[in-house]
């Protein structure tokens, strides 16, 4: 579950590493996002580009 307990940048970097590691092991990742995370990351339910970019960055 994606939640924010630290600075937003730290959380983002942590999840990028986790997603990269999981992908290299052949796992498919599905995020369960707590509603307050949208506020903390300053993103909208209507624009999920943040999560797309997170997954793309984890793939490189």
TrEMBL record:
Domain 6-phospho-N-acetylmuramidase N-terminal stretches: 1-54
SUPFAM superfamilies in the record: (Trans)glycosidases
Domain of life of the organism encoding this protein: Bacteria
Name recorded for this polypeptide: 6-phospho-N-acetylmuramidase N-terminal domain-containing protein
Source organism (scientific name): Enterococcus ratti
